[in-house]
């Protein structure tokens, strides 16, 4: 006797009855391109037939996504300009406060002053880049636009090397317990202004011979000349984090009970550096991060990066000048 086994009902070989099936959105539909990373959903009914309608709500036309991306990019550009303007105003106020208050020009505050100057020059070249680098100029690759890019990268590097100077000073004074009287201003000028110069010259020579296009912005595939200046910046960033770890360790163990005015100033400088160094580091490391294909992560990346990069100068001014008790005290006197 032969028994027939009823076959399970299904809409297709890869879908059983009663299941909600997902498949990538169509690449093209009625001449409109769609994002295939999202899915369309359709129910396989109990009788083994497809539901009359599928759920195509997640399928977004690429044109619509491009419009949304363009809108977010434009908002990010506004945040960038606004942040750089606010930072520039704060930096200039801080610069002139240090310029006018001669009585507080100890080496520690001179280092603060130079860091603020480096940020002013970096912001100034950023504005020059934004206002002069049109697509036509990029394609022409004229000499002046390459010099503007080199200047921007030089002053960008000086930000990192003056932060390194801040770390060196605090590490020498707190961890190595040397008298800061032995430290000289010229040592920090060499670190902050001189060392970045040959690095950028070497980078410019590399660009001239191996990637001489588009005003030296961006990089050609397989060409790594940008690491000539990015490498030293990452190195001093890592060294500064090591300095900070040692400084905080000493402050937590040996100098916790000390209440001298010098130690209090050191603590305030360390707090400022603890905030600013990660801020500077995070924004730089974000350039090496791929936010992925997800739309939300890309939007968050754009806004987060625009805010942190543009407001760096403002935070430097606040922590190293406006919250500096010496600056506040002598500003009230004058």
UniProtKB/TrEMBL annotation:
InterPro entries the record matches: GPCR_2, GPCR_2-like_7TM, GPCR_2_CRF1_rcpt, GPCR_2_CRF_rcpt, GPCR_2_extracell_dom_sf, GPCR_2_extracellular_dom, GPCR_2_secretin-like, GPCR_2_secretin-like_CS
SUPFAM superfamilies: Hormone receptor domain (SSF111418)
Membrane topology qualifier: Multi-pass membrane protein
Transmembrane domains' residue ranges: 73-99, 111-129, 160-179, 186-205, 227-248, 269-289, 301-323
One Gene Ontology molecular-function label: G protein-coupled peptide receptor activity
GO biological process, one term: cell surface receptor signaling pathway
Signal peptide per UniProt: none
Principal subcellular localisation of the protein: membrane
PANTHER family for the chain: CORTICOTROPIN-RELEASING FACTOR RECEPTOR 1 (PTHR45620:SF2), PDF RECEPTOR-LIKE PROTEIN-RELATED (PTHR45620)
Family: Belongs to the G-protein coupled receptor 2 family.
Name of the protein described by the UniProt record: Corticotropin-releasing factor receptor 1
